[in-house]
Amino acid sequence: MAPAPRYPGDALSNARRTLYVVLLGALTALGPFTIDLYLPAFPVVQHDFQTTAAMVQLTLTGTMIGFGLGQLIVGPLSDKVGRRVPLLIVTGLHVAASVVACIAPTLLMLGGARVVMGIGAAAGGVVAMAMVRDLFGGRRLVVMLSRLSLVSGVAPVAAPLIGSALLLVMPWRGIFLVLAAYGLVMLVCSLFVLPETLVRDARGAAAGTLTLGQRYASVFRDRVFVGVLIIGAMAFSGLFSYLSSSSFLFQDGYGFTPQQFGLLFAANSVGVVGGVQIAARLANRYGPQWVLAWSTAALVASSIAIIVTDQLHLGMWGTIIPLFFFMTACGFTFPCGQALALDRHGAAAGTAASLLGAANSVVAGLVSPIVGVIAAGSGITATTMAMVMVGCALVAVLALWALVRPRTVPMMGE
């Protein structure tokens, strides 16, 4: 007689498992698409509103702050009432806010709509991650998170390409109608395809008897979780410093067209996707904590290399090559950090996932404008961008060895 499945997802057919991963990955990708799709339009938005690059970057900051705050609400709520209801409500909010952004007559209204879009996109990322943890655990959790990241990793690769192509056939405002349509498709799929993965018995035992403060306290008492939280936030902030600066750096600094920028952005983003997939194999063999040891060191080395090559005036390729390695190191970092955090807190997966996502979004939103502040009056350069990336990478290394302490973390079970 075959043993009973240890986790619910173990009993799913391969076809059903693949369907869930694709849909959950697409939900997770709603956030990156909301961020990246209009990056090639930054210079055009700046011209239309007759404002500064730093002010345009603030609309991106608003999106990230909204995304983070939304996750702090949706995550614990999904532990309390289930995954589907918060997902449906907040995704509908994203659709409405996207339409408002399309017709916004002022930069202030656009920024406000972007904040609400961020809140609306929050459900996709946090609920998808929590659903994966509801279904899987142990080493299979690492594999499933890496597959989820592969699907969602298509977003930063495809979004700038799609955004730059859309600018050829429509004004920048049309990009937000495309985002509204994407959100509507996700809303329909969530309504008719995705099941409730947090069953009522588990819901009552895991979260129903705990207050919001108790759920947060249960994860914050875990030093490994706190360390991973900091590592993920710093890696994402370093990556986001590139995201918020790249359109100005490569289009204004190196003279790229929006279409050339989209191709370059996509080529660099391949590093993230490749890193995510290789990380799953290495984590299964050596443990995610040791993959983080190497990836955080690579973040420091590659970001320093960008400064060195820029100061040596090695030009565009001197920036692109180490930048590719930085993004690849981010790809190694994200799924390993998520796996360590979620595997330790299955009973509060929504809360843990919300904290991971919120830390990434809020910290990145606060850190990325520093590039514009440093570059004020002289324009964004590879050095000003990489200075922030180096600082983020160094904090990640400190968090790994001071809090996570890889030697003290046991290997994840099957």
Automatic annotation (TrEMBL):
Query: CDD domains, alphabetically?
Result: MFS_MdfA_MDR_like
The annotated topology with respect to the bilayer is: Multi-pass membrane protein
Q: Which InterPro entries does its entry note?
A: Efflux_drug-R_Bcr/CmlA, MFS, MFS_dom, MFS_trans_sf, Sugar_transporter_CS
The cellular component terms of Gene Ontology attached to this UniProt record, alphabetical and capped at eight, are: plasma membrane
Please give the Gene3D superfamilies that the UniProt record associates with this protein.
Multidrug resistance protein D (1.20.1720.10)
Record field: transmembrane: 20-42, 54-75, 87-109, 115-136, 148-169, 175-194, 224-243, 263-283, 290-308, 314-334, 355-376, 382-404
Instruction: Please report the name of this protein according to its UniProt entry.
Output: Major facilitator transporter
Q: Which organism is it from?
A: Microbacterium mangrovi
